[in-house]
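hiii so my PI (J.) wants the whole complex modelled not just the main chain, which honestly fair. so below is everything: two entries, each one labled with what it is. i double checked the lines twice but i was tired so who knows lol
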Amino acid sequence: MIQIGRFRLKKERFILTLLAVPFILFVFAFSYVPLFGWILAFVNYKPGLNIWDCDFKGLFYFKLIFQDWNKMASVLKNTLAMSFLGLVCTPLPAIFAIFLSELPSARFKKVVQTLTTIPNFISWVIIYALAYALFSTEGVVNQLLLQAGVIETAGNILGNSRITWVFQTILNVWKVLGWNAIIYFAAIAGIDSELYDAASVDGAGRFHKILHITVPGISSTFFVLLLLQVSNMLSLGIDQYLAFYNSMVADKILVLDLYVYRLGLITQDYSYATAVGIFKSLVSIILLFSVNGISKKLRGESLV
Amino acid sequence: MQKTTKRNDRFFYGVTYLIMILLMFICFYPFYYVFIYSISDSALAQKGISLFPKGVTLTNYMEVVKLDGIIRAFAVSLARTVIGTVVTVTACSFFAYLVTKELYGRKYIYRFVIITMYFNSGLIPYYLTMRAYHLTNTFWVYIIPGAISAYYVVLLKTFIESLPISLEESAKLDGAGYITVFFKIIFPLSKPILATITVFSAVAQWNNWFDNYIYVQSDRLKTLQLMLYEYLNQASQISQMSASSLQHGLGGTSVTAQSVRMAITMVATLPVLFVYPFMQKHFVKGIMLGAVKG
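here's the output for the full assembly
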């Protein structure tokens, strides 16, 4: 009897594993196979040619990154500038959550949360459409400022390269503020309310309680999110910058991901684009491990 | 003492309420503005509106419906949202269920999937892989590459592991196989997390335009989002040439390009805004679950 039972168990495990095989193959095909494409960075790839028929170039394209450093430096500067501005803004959702949590009306809080979360569910194309409606030369902002006599000629904010970094950062804050605050609402709700009661008994005022109870209560959440954002510094994504890209702001909005896209799919320089992509991946992985190390050291807990 | 505290409180609440109301306004006004512009008479809107529509009309939407291929684009977007979401949710949840079982090498299988969250090949190798798989210029490039997401698998696995094992065992004693157990027991019990993932996946599908932009050139498979993008770009090129050249009538009517643009924007936005109230409670739950490391 026991023998049969064990046999059945083995058979079941086998069947289960068999059922999982298609999924494993799928993950392999769509997440691991593309990695073989890194070979492109070491050969002179011409679209349409078989990879094995291309000239082997060794590290040529990686050296090219440094030879072509002026362009690369400008792209990195844009990427890091906007990442940095983004990092500076990371406390905003936390501050927003803290202050909203202080308000007594549950219904009001709910309405605020609902309305501030909406932008997170809108694509960058639509955000571009909204921004265009508000900020372009014939947009409502220019109209109102003209009417009020604040400005004399309409200015195109979307085409003003001097404010691109700040403007893109503000748009991003607008999109994610409410969404990123959700996790802080949860963290605040999880703080033991007895702490607040005890503090009140001791005569602590509102700001004392915020500073000494709420802030420490959410600081570990904040820290994790901040570190993750640091590890993602080079990966700003492409949607936002592609949507807002135009010839007037091109010099300021070209971030690393967009640069790779343009090198590869517009100038068809597949090999160089892949090399730049690998460069980005390597730096990102180093960042992730450093940040993880920092986290282990400071908090005794790893991020990944 | 008591009095100053009260006055401080009133001041604090006053300022906080004010800031919150301002924030709500900033978050919502752009949508409202585009909405009132889209239902206003073109000529009147061009002279400037800010709070109320002027000369309410549906002409702009009539013009949008007449645009070449827009109904098709709407259908493509809808199809990818529905099919893509069903495929992703089913595939991820079944796989997550399997990973909770005693597979051979389960730990390694799970890790094999999780690691994919931390690296990717980059755009160009991925693009060429899609081409090699003959997925470019097909509808399936919207559906298949995203069918398994490591992040969803983590969320689902964590949830399924928290379910009581006894239900599953009693079904097994009654002779149910794994697939029956999955569809009859695990799937219904996992409703909260499934709802969350359905929302995430559906919103991502509806909003995605980049895959359309790079993998699909065919007009027949164009999504609404890309159509909006192209339409906006055309229009902004025109307006860059001369700021006041926007008043070229479309199809001989007096509707301006700006009005039509606003109406298309609304068509692409409204589906999300309409289902938004229903999905809100689910994604809040989801982000909490996501915060717990899998």
